[in-house]
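Q: Sequence in, structure out?
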Amino acid sequence: MLCLSFCLVVFIDYCFSVVVSPFAAMKFHYHLGKVLYSFCDGKDVGDTIFLIASQINHGKEWILRDKDLSIGIAELNMKAGKKALDGCDHKTAYSYLGAALSLLPEDHWRSHYDLSLRLNFLTSSAANSCCQYDEAEQILRRGLTNARCLDDQLPSYLLLSQSECDALLGAS
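A: Exactly. Output:
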């Protein structure tokens, strides 16, 4: 079933790229992702989560218009990023986690603290694993600034020290 779904999406993508404008194709992918998301919301969908997230991410400007939807899609991207991290696909994880962070509202540290804390740590972990040490440090420092207590800061301090050691060893 997953293979058939993927083939159908690839075929539709090709048809849209030949027949319609890039804007219409982007909107189609977004709506396709939204439909898939509505059917799978709250369920363990396995690797299909990558297909759903990548389709819906085509419509970032539509997602950002709806704050409730943007949090749900941020969580979807976080799940996809976590699944990619678990499979040691760090670049894919970094992409999904970065997309998740970009969907959070301006006041996310106040309004969605737990989600912000988890996303911040996961994204910095993925960045560090992709040898993006400066980016990982920047994300970690932002998290340390916004963390409410020492217990929330400790994992970031540990990763920051590991990141600095990796950067030093990589520079040698």
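The chain has a mean pLDDT of 83.
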